[in-house]
Amino acid sequence: MATASRQLQFSQLQNVFKLRIGFAIMLTALAGLAMTPNADLSILEVSALAVAVLVSAAAAGALNQYLERDLDGNMARTANRPFVTGVFQAGPKWLCAIILLLAGAVILAWSVLNFATALYVFLGAFFYGVVYTVWLKRRSWMNIVIGGLSGSFAVLAGVAAADPDLATAPVLLAVVLFLWTPPHFWSLAMALHKDYAAAKVPMLPVVIGDGPAARVILAHTVALVALSLLPFAFGMGWLYLAGAVIGGGYFILRAVQLVRAPGPVLAMKTFFASLIQLTLLLVTAIAEPWIMGLV
Length: 295
Hints:
This protein has helices at residues 2-17, 19-34, 43-67, 69-72, 82-85, 92-112, 115-136, 143-147, 149-162, 168-191, 193-198, 204-208, 210-229, 238-260, 264-294. By secondary structure, the protein is mostly helical. The chain has two domains: 15-162, UbiA prenyltransferase (Tetracycline Repressor, domain 2, Orthogonal Bundle); 167-295.
């Protein structure tokens, strides 16, 4: 019984801190580092970067759930989150813990790496936890467009850890992340259109309808895939290019299908295609320097 209880508690903590998203954001930082020419960080420095980005993302995720517990209760997808169900009680202790986690992440990045890395670590959490969650989500369809900068700052944190002057190829990846976030979330919002409408969250499909939103998703997808190919011209190799072409081509295919038949089924397929595209980009970006080092 005790083991089952601990497992349940850990599962609830994973939920509150959105650790799966946190690990994905951590990978974007490591991809930014891997794409930076002549990056030569010690194991300690790479570990500090990974932990700082993960912890800051976890703090932002927890703040998001803390502040959105009223919205979450109105959506089937989020109705079982711990602050909604009462497993965790929202209160000052949680806010203090979130602030301390973010402060610890920033201090770790600053002390082990440099000020620029610490700044990007902070900005990534700030844009998700405050700009997106507090300022924009309930007010504007631009919520996820501007809030998408959170992932871009994670990439820049990885670049700055090796080179505060920011190399071209990883900066392009940061822009790709900025363009990737809206079609990713808009696809999910279309798949869960009724939930977002019931919660009165002005996601693009709710504001303009599924058909027009599908066309915007396709335009964003084409732009981000085209941009994702450019790092090949600035030092990235064939492995990265293959990942960009395969993942990007699949994402575009699903977006085209969504335009032809807007609705929840194809929207969810487009959502998963966005995850596949990003995964291939990050994995090939991280793996390529390591593989080239073995050749």
